[in-house]
Amino acid sequence: MNRRGRGASSRMRSQSSGFVESIPFIRRAPKALRRGLAHLVSPVALLASLASFAPLIALCALAGLAACGKTPETAPSPRPVVSMTVHPDGNVPSASWPGTVQARYTTPLSFRVNGKIVERSARLGDTVKPGQVLARLDPADYDKNAASAQAQYDAAQHRFAFAKQQFDRDTAQAQADLIARAQLEQTQDAYASAVAQRDQAKQQLALAQDQRRYTQLVADHAGVITAENADTGQNVQAGQPVYQLAWAGDVDVASDLPENAIGALHIGDTAQVTLPALPGRHYTARVRELAAAADPQSRTWRVKLTLEQPDADARLGMTANVALMANAASASSATNGTNATNAAQADGGTFTIPATALFHDGNAPALWIVQGADNVLQLRRVSVSRYDARTITVTQGLKDGERVVLQGVHTVTAGEKVRPVAPLHPEDFAS
């Protein structure tokens, strides 16, 4: 035992002896007994001294346990995003815009009188001819009106015949001075009234017959039924559409053009039209109509082009791509298309990417680019020359080999670290 341990032991024995000597009845006990009690009391005194430090010991134990329960915080893992590496298409596309194939004239067909539809003989998609009956109303009421008008006309015709006979007789008697002048004037007045009543009854009869004829809905042009708006048994009002008829003949392609493409366009300009549903087919079209003002919602101008030689395969409602010929496209794109082409060549070509990747930065189109080895997102503005049903064509703002986010473009933020993931079905994102 070292010196410090012996000192502590001596102090403990002296404290134990003092504790024993302080008790009156033990102080009168023999010395040997008091010494034994002192040795017995020393461990108890040690425990008592340690009890005074119990709160501090408990606090240290709790701190130790709390320290053992803590685990170091780990940084959140980057979120996965579906992305793809882009490569140039290899050519610079001409300026083209989407459109829709439609008939030059489309009119709603409706009855000219009220009634209940009792028969429909045309269905959606049927080809109809001029004069063909398409639907009928219940004619009972109109038959009665026509019969009443016929009876009124017959009565007026009988009164006219009587008035005519009286007028001829009185005229002859007046020439022979057999009747007074006043009687002749009365006969003339009755005759004129009978003529007017006959003419009125005749017009009423014609109107009733027309209304009875209007209970049949007749096609006034050849064409195709493109919509059905009423069914058998339905009560319809005069002028309420029952069918939609697309006239046969000229076929148009309607397209909405931006302001930078409408400036140099004129009536009669030619364009090339392609239909995605008919690969390899090309149609020549001419501009037939230009809207005088922009649409208030889209701020685009409606342009209608007529196909010069349409065929039966170009069906109404098909989507189309309209590419203006050089005589119009070069002028309208003097400040836009040429610059976009040069910029596309400077950036390394054009890129066709899925339309789901398109986002916006203010009013400009933009894409999310995965930058660098740490995969940080950057929102970059791009120039888009063409919008298709599933893809867009980017002419400026992309470079070969860059990675573009394809899905979830509305859920990511600039500067966010991500983990690029290839599309599960790459064929869904094919051009």
UniProtKB/TrEMBL annotation:
Mind telling me which Pfam families this protein's record contains?
A: Beta-barrel_RND_2, BSH_RND, RND-MFP_C
Location, primary (coarse class): other
The entry's keywords: Coiled coil, Transport
CusB-like beta-barrel domain boundaries: 254-326
UniProt cross-references to Gene3D superfamilies, sorted A to Z: 2.40.30.170, 2.40.420.20, 2.40.50.100
| Any coiled-coil regions, as ranges | 146-211
Q: Where would you find this protein in the cell?
A: Cell envelope
The Multidrug resistance protein MdtA-like barrel-sandwich hybrid domain is annotated at 112-241
Per the record, its GO cellular-component terms are:
efflux pump complex
Is Coiled coil set as a keyword in this record?
yes
Ranges for the Multidrug resistance protein MdtA-like C-terminal permuted SH3 domain? 352-409
Which family is this sequence assigned to?
Answer: Belongs to the membrane fusion protein (MFP) (TC 8.A.1) family.
Please give the name of this protein: Efflux RND transporter periplasmic adaptor subunit
Natural source organism: Paraburkholderia tagetis
